Amino acid sequence: MTGTEGEAGAPSGKPGRQGLARSLFRVSLPRWRGSRYSLSKLFLNFYLLAMGSFVAIAFIADFIISTAQQGITDDYARRFMRGTITLIEDELFRHPRRQWERKIREIDGKFSYKLDIVERRSLDIRLTSAQVEKLDAGDIAIAHDHDVMYHRLGTSSKVLVVGPLSATHNPEHNERLPLDLRLRLLTWSLIGVIFAIALWFWVRPVWRDLESLRQTARDLGDGDFEAPPPVVHTQLFAPLADTLISMSERVRQLLATHRELSCGISHELRTPIARMRFALEMLSETTEIGERQRLWAMMEADLDELDQLIDTSLTYARFEREAPEAHFSSVAFADWLSDEVDSVRLLGRQLNVRVDTSLLPENLRVDLDRKAMPYALRNLLRNAFKYAAREIRVSSELLGDQIAVHVDDDGIGIPEGEREHIFSAFTRLDRSRDRSTGGYGLGLAIARRVLELHGGTAYAAASPLGGARFTLSWKAHQ
């Protein structure tokens, strides 16, 4: 149902402005060449299909009803014509049988349908056995194929033939269309015109919506994910338009994540690679055992940093690409929290790491994903290990139906204007850009994605210890 008038061409963009990901996408995929929907063809196809089906249904229904009412119609026609046929028969019986042919011609001139007299034996091939039985019993036999009535004249071998009664079979009225046929033609013409007008007002908004959806789909196929959303005028395509908008937004998010990862990882890789290259150059120029061991240790640390960067980036990309389905299980929360803190306590060096669950109800059980939630908690703890001076406190409390876990440190804290920004990927405060506390700016972003998976959130605030407080909050019972 598409026309042939195509529109070639697609918007072209500069790779430098649209980013590496979109450039690769546009180059690797062929251009989408979609033809426009033809309004006339769409209307004609719908009209022929609907009108043809309607006419076919009407004729079939008329045939079924006519067949079902045939017996009732025959009985009505016999009662209607019985008086006329009886009068004609009485008039013929007033004259000798040899004058019947002449007399029937005289009477025939007074009727608008044909009258005739035939021999009884000539009707055996014209009538069915049931009609012959009616005829021999003195009743009126009706032949539906030509709309003719037959009546036997007394006990003679002569049969009065009346008809055809219908104007369509009567040669005297063939010069013009019958009234019923003219009424049918007029009725169907009016129905066809009214239906065409109604269908036009229905098809045109549908065609506009199809065109809008087609244009949006073609723009997405060409890699233009900033194209305006489709505008639909009917509820028929509203769900499809919403799906296209959601798909476009999701693709934009994936491309943005891809760009963030590409730019961020490439930036983060430069420092350890530059240090390794410098260490290799120094290693080739020195023969001192102590210096060589120090350089080897530096390169091993850089390799560990690269490995951790790749692992963290893959974890973040997995959460961004498609949020994994949460598998909740109920845990004894106080014990679970203490175990998770103990598992990373060694990374805290000489820091005093305390766990406070005194505000929790006794034997409290909380629903969480045992595989994903440790990512969030450990990332907050690692962040606290980098900035704490002497003390870290992990506490928890139940606020209504929400469970909250606080990670407090006594470090330098976070300015209020930066507290939301630091949860974005590859975002670090200026004072953290040194090797000891630099990180990659992904830990807090991963923590927030995990909490979103739980239907909660992660946020930062000021700590009672003087540094930063990071809080994980989600619904305790899913």
Task: Describe the protein.
The protein starts with a strand and ends with a strand. By secondary structure, it is an alpha+beta fold. Helix 6 (about 180-220) runs parallel beside helix 7, helix 7 runs antiparallel to helix 8 and helix 8 (about 290-320) packs parallel to helix 11. Helices cover about 50% and strands about 15% of the residues. It has helices at about 15-30, 40-70, 70-95, 100-110, 130-135, 180-220, 240-285, 290-320, 335-345, 375-385, 445-455, and strands spanning about 1-5, 35, 115-120, 140-145, 150, 160, 330, 350-355, 365-370, 390-400, 400-410, 455-460, 470-475. The chain is built from 11 helices and 13 strands. Among the domains are: about 70-175; about 250-320, Helix Hairpins (Orthogonal Bundle), CATH 1.10.287; about 330-475, Heat Shock Protein 90 (2-Layer Sandwich). The longest helix has about 50 residues, at about 240-285. Strand 12 and strand 13 form a beta hairpin. The model is unreliable at about 1-35 and about 430-440 (pLDDT under 50). The strands form 4 sheets. A 5-stranded mixed beta sheet has the order 8-10-11-13-12. About 20% of the residues are buried.
